Every structure is written in C-alpha cells, then in structure tokens.
Amino acid sequence: DRGPLVGVRRMLVLSSIAGLKDAGLYERYRAHIDSSTLASILEMIGPGWMPAELAKSHYDACDRMQLTDAQVQDMGLRAGDKMSSSLLVAATQSTGAPAERSPWALVGAYSRMGRRIFEGSSSQYVKLGPNKLLLEHVGNPLFSLHYFRIAHSSFMQNTFRSLGVEIAD
Question: At 98, is the pLDDT very low, low, confident or very high (cuts 50, 70, 90)?
C-alpha cells in the first residue's frame, strides 16, 4: 500500500494533451478545462511530478468532452503503440537478457513503470490463467473517471495483445 495518489509524472498528462492535439480535439478540450488550470499544467515542462489534483482536472475535462468510447479507445491505442516497445526494453533492462516474448515478463516491468508514473496508489496484477491478467487499482482517483479508465484499458490491451493476453480490469 503506497497510500493515495498524490502526484503523476508530468509526461502522462502532457502526452495526453499531445494526443488530443494530434486527434484535432485540443480546442474542444480547452473549452472544458479552466484556463488557469490549463496554464498551470502547460507551465510544467520537463521531467518531474504534477500534483494529482491537476492531473484529475485534466482528465475531468476529457470526461466532460463526452467523446465516444471508440474515440477514447483510439487515444489509448495510440499510447499503447508507443509503450509496447518501451515495455520490452524495460523487461530487458531488468533482467540483463533479451526480453522474453512472454506477457508475464512484462508484468514486472509494467509494475515498476507504474510506480514511476504514479506517486502513491497501488496496482495489483493477478494471473488468472495462461493468457488472462486481472488488474486492480487502489487509491488512484483517476480510475473513477470514464475517460481515464477507457484509455488506460485500451492502452493495456494494446500493450499485451501482441503477446496473446486478455486484460480484465
């Protein structure tokens, strides 16, 4: 138990905003977020932590856009395309050996990455069968937001799909 979420890596929210721009949704997003909150988010450049409240404000605004699940899934799939190779690299770095093309080798890498992205909150990964994984998230209010849940689920499904694993979260 790492306690409640208190911060997220800036790159999580900033890459989400970049995805909205790439999808032509940035102006719509700006109409749903307080301008001073957006200014605070955009002032945060480079690596480091963003207060959880700012991240929640970002994803609240994304929720208020009322995108279709298909649109949100597309945002998560884009992130998953970029992250899949990063997870394989992370798995290789942790073992010092070439990355095993096994989903179970990636779970440890993803878990470590999650601790680097979220300051506080916890995730549990449960192997339900040879190719079924259950994810449980505790203490992270971002998962209470429809947009974040759908995008995260799409991201995870895309990341593990190439390895033949079904994600249930």
Answer: very low
- Could you read off the pLDDT of 31-56 as tens digits, one per residue? 999 999 999 999 998 889 999 999 99
- Quote the pLDDT of residue 169: 57
| Closest to 57 measured CA to CA, from 107, 120, 124, 8 | 8
Cα angle, residue 111 at apex, residues 89 and 108 outer, rounded to 5°: 60
